[in-house]
UniProtKB/TrEMBL annotation:
<feature type="domain" description="OVATE">
    <location>
        <begin position="42"/>
        <end position="101"/>
    </location>
</feature>
<dbReference type="GO" id="GO:0045892">
    <property type="term" value="P:negative regulation of DNA-templated transcription"/>
</dbReference>
<dbReference type="GO" id="GO:0005634">
    <property type="term" value="C:nucleus"/>
</dbReference>
<protein>
    <recommendedName>
        <fullName>Transcription repressor</fullName>
    </recommendedName>
</protein>
<keyword id="KW-0678">Repressor</keyword>
<dbReference type="InterPro" id="IPR006458">
    <property type="entry name" value="Ovate_C"/>
</dbReference>
<dbReference type="Pfam" id="PF04844">
    <property type="entry name" value="Ovate"/>
</dbReference>
<keyword id="KW-0805">Transcription regulation</keyword>
<keyword id="KW-0804">Transcription</keyword>
<dbReference type="InterPro" id="IPR038933">
    <property type="entry name" value="Ovate"/>
</dbReference>
<keyword id="KW-0539">Nucleus</keyword>
<comment type="function">
    <text>Transcriptional repressor that regulates multiple aspects of plant growth and development.</text>
</comment>
Length: 101
């Protein structure tokens, strides 16, 4: 229960500092190989980056079929590299919310 409350606090903190001009990049990192190498990236503006990232991550897991922790780490890497540092906290929170529902 403590972990969930901590995630909620972090999310509120991120939402207060969120700038609506931020966007997701559409460039897949060159070092990405394996399951995600053929993935298509999309630019997206968001009013709720946590929810949108969480949904995007779920779609990637379903479409690509994450089979092990190494592939999950690769997916985390893709999201971090593709997005500005201002939303890295949302990325972490979204992944954690899926790992610890």
């Amino acid at each position: 229960m403590e972990a969930i409350e901590e995630l909620k606090k972090k999310r509120k903190k991120h939402m207060r500092s969120y700038n609506t001009e931020l966007s997701f990049s559409a460039r897949l990192p060159g070092e990405v190989q394996g399951a995600y190498a053929d993935s298509i990236c999309a630019v997206m503006y968001s009013c709720d980056p946590f929810a949108d990232l969480r949904q995007s991550i779920l779609e990637m897991i379903r479409e690509v079929g994450v089979r092990d922790w190494e592939e999950m780490e690769e997916l985390v890497h893709c999201y971090v590299v593709l997005n500005s540092s201002e939303i890295h906290g949302f990325i972490v929170d979204a992944f954690l919310s899926l790992c610890f529902p």
